[in-house]
Amino acid sequence: MSFDALSVKAQFPIFHRYPDLVYLDSAATSQKPASVIKVLSDFYSFENANIHRGVYDLSAKATDKYEEVREKLAAAFNANANDFAYCSGTTEGINLVVNGYLLPHLEKGDEVLITAMEHHANLIPWQQACEKKGAKLSIIPVKPSGEIDMEAFENKLSKKTKMLAMVHISNTLGTINPVKILTQKAHDLGVPVLLDAAQSAGHLPLDLQDLQVDFAVFSAHKLFGPTGIGALYCSENFKDQLKASKFGGGSIKEVSFEKTSWMAFPHGLEAGTPHIAGVVGMGAALDFIATLDLEESFAHEHALVTQLRQELDALGGIKIFGNPSEYAGIVSFEVDGVHPHDVASFLSEADIAVRAGHHCTQPLLERMQVPATTRASFSIYNTEKDVERLVATLKDLKEFWD
Amino acid sequence: MKSLYGDLIKQHQKNPYHFLKKEDVELSLRANNPICGDRYDLYIENEENVLSTLHFHGFGCALSKASASIMVETLEGKSYEEAKEICQNFLDYIHDKTNGEVYTEAFKAFEALHTQTARIDCVALTWKEMLSFLQTQSS
Question: Hey, what CATH topology would domain A5-24+293-401 get?
Answer without folding.
Answer: Aspartate Aminotransferase, domain 1 (3.90.1150)
